[in-house]
Amino acid sequence: MSASSLPESGAVPGRVAQRHDLRSADSVTGLPPSMRTVHAMKSRMETTEIVVGLDIGTTKVCAVVGEVDADGITILGVGNVPCRGLRKGVVSNIDWTVRSISEAIEAAQTMAGVEIRTVYAGVAGSHIRCHGSDGVAAISGGEVTRLDVERVLEGARAIPVDADRQILHVLPREFTVDNQDGIRDPVGMSGVRLGTKVNLITAATSCVQNVVRCAERCGLTVADVVLEPVASAESVLSEDEKEIGVALIDVGGGTTDLLLYVDGGIAHASVIPAGGNNVTADIAAGLRTPMGEAERLKRNFGCALGRMVGDDEEIEVPGVGGHPPRRTARRVLSDIIEPRVEEIFAVIRKRIEDTGLLEQLSAGAVLTGGGVLMEGMTEFAEEILGMPVRLGVPVGVRGITQLVAGPQYATGVGLVQYGANALAQARALTPVPPEVTRIDARRDRIVKEPRRELQEEMRIETKSGGRFWSWLRAAF
């Protein structure tokens, strides 16, 4: 991997690299210890986090680099390379997958100008399962805190799980405080008993470990493994859609992921082992053309609804095994694609009906993923699902957004947003050390709670001409 011009990150999970104010890096060592303490605090306040999302898909590996600061997420770089090491979302060839990850990381590093050490990796596949659970915990101190929420969620995940499976996510649907239910965020509420209802997302341990092993063989540390449709929802769904009910349909190369939101929380998650590669295989068999050419025909000329294609439109189909290319009606290509797409959407509708949540999806469905780029996909989905359907593209980020503007980048961008939220939650749960000196911006002075040795250093510096206070006024 290429060397980076940025300093190495610390030990905080998910922190890949940091950008500091370099103008005073050499001068800090010449300051007295008390002044170095305040300068270090100012540097931490100005620090930005670099978060990397690694989308390991059946047809491609995509690495997205984002810079997280107080203003939001800025996309710095993207690496996107083909991948042949997965089958239906599960790693089937370690070496091929490692090669694709290395190439994607190298491309993202070069574009972003940072060294990537830690990533948030996506996982999918038909091994994913969704289970309901609940938990109860006593409220310490009479008021709900973040730690109380963590304890009740930890209790909800304490259920028997098969030895070959592990829990990926604990997704709260609602909280209860004493006898009051339907609470989204209980922090700050008064009570003695906190309860929750959650959905547990489980995955095959071997599949998750293979993803982690591939990343580690590339010299990367996996901060967290995230279910890909959960990551995609971060980037393409609005809070209003989650509130009134929405179905997220992520059509990938090997799988189609379904995620249902009701009342602001995830109510159901499942994976269908069919996707864009099935359509490509049908085209290759039906038109007797190589798989690579079938993929090109699907992307450039494919249409999910045959009636949207004119009768006079023609395409050139390359031959296989030395046979010359031939011309055929574009309608023939559409007639091959339509039955497979109809089958996928029919299975999705059946899954939604089986959950009993069809009537609660007032916002309809959102299509995302590389498999929805064909013409007529949203129109066909509306017919089969019987609800409004829109195309979902990543939102809520800045920077070089033109590189991640398509639905095929929803998971990669969503992994960055998921990582940014995880870092924010970790900081919220981390207590401030009492010996650290705080800056009181209102009074433009230091709040007097330093350690004894720091007090002595400040007293000495003040006696020696007031250099410390002069520097502090100039710096702040």
UniProtKB/TrEMBL annotation:
Primary localization class, coarse: membrane
Pfam hit, one: FtsA
An annotated GO cellular component: cytoplasmic side of plasma membrane
Region of interest (Disordered), ranges: 1-33
The keyword Thylakoid is annotated on this UniProt entry: no
Record flagged with keyword Cell membrane: yes
Domain SHS2 positions: 51-236
Subcellular location as annotated: Cell membrane
Coiled coil regions, renumbered to chain: none
Gene Ontology biological process terms from the UniProt entry: FtsZ-dependent cytokinesis
Membrane topology: Peripheral membrane protein
HAMAP family hit by this protein: FtsA
Family in the record: Belongs to the FtsA/MreB family.
Cited function: Cell division protein that is involved in the assembly of the Z ring. May serve as a membrane anchor for the Z ring.
Full protein name: Cell division protein FtsA
Organism in which the protein naturally occurs: Chondromyces crocatus
